[in-house]
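Action item from last meeting closed. Structure (208 res):
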């Protein structure tokens, strides 16, 4: 059906975007400062950067060029996926100068992205920006890190719920794997339903 095709296209685009962002972070000069921030300031091992498929969105329109010119996707495909928008000067990348966290569903499909500003100046807008809602992404229906946590959640019989992506990644670094983030503290009924498919016990570990 048309809606299934649209969903498939968005998942494919998100997968390509994640590869692009990860390459820039780990292997390209434009991601050097972001990589230093993650490895030095946040003490995130490169192995975990790759496990979580973290990336970097540059300040230029790199993703639009990559997906339209090199991969042959249409402008409306990128807009439908929430990866780009029509700006004053044509199609623009949605994420600029941000560390990118792919948000993956329990089946392993990348549904959306969260982007964290590299510097803390509010000139670039809010510290965190999420993909807008799309045919595959409803913010209150997903959690960060579930694809990597679900086996540990089932094994432990409980899930630890934290606020942010870095809380999840730091916990994995310390060997605590049954953990997910809800992106701020607005926990929804749908997120609880989703998590209760894997464990009946929920442990909240929010910031003060």
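Sequence:
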């Amino acid at each position: 059906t048309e809606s299934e095709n649209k969903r498939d296209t968005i998942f494919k685009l998100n997968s390509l975007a994640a590869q692009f962002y990860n390459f820039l972070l780990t292997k390209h000069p434009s991601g050097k400062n972001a990589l230093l921030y993650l490895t030095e300031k946040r003490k995130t091992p490169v192995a975990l950067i790759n496990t979580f498929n973290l990336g970097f969105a540059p300040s230029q329109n790199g993703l639009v060029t990559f997906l339209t010119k090199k991969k042959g996707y249409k402008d409306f495909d990128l807009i439908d996926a929430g990866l780009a928008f029509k700006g004053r000067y044509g199609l623009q990348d949605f994420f600029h100068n941000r560390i990118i966290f792919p948000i993956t569903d329990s089946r392993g499909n990348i549904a959306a992205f969260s982007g964290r500003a590299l510097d803390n100046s509010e000139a670039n807008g809010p510290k965190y920006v999420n993909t807008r809602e799309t045919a595959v992404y409803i913010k209150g229906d997903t959690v960060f890190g579930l694809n990597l946590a679900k086996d540990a959640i089932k094994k432990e019989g409980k899930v630890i719920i934290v606020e942010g992506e870095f809380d999840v990644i730091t916990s994995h670094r310390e060997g605590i794997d049954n953990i997910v983030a809800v992106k701020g503290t607005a926990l929804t009924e749908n997120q609880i339903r989703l998590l209760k498919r894997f464990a009946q016990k929920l442990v909240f570990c929010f910031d003060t």
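Note appended to the action item: The radius of gyration is 17 Å.
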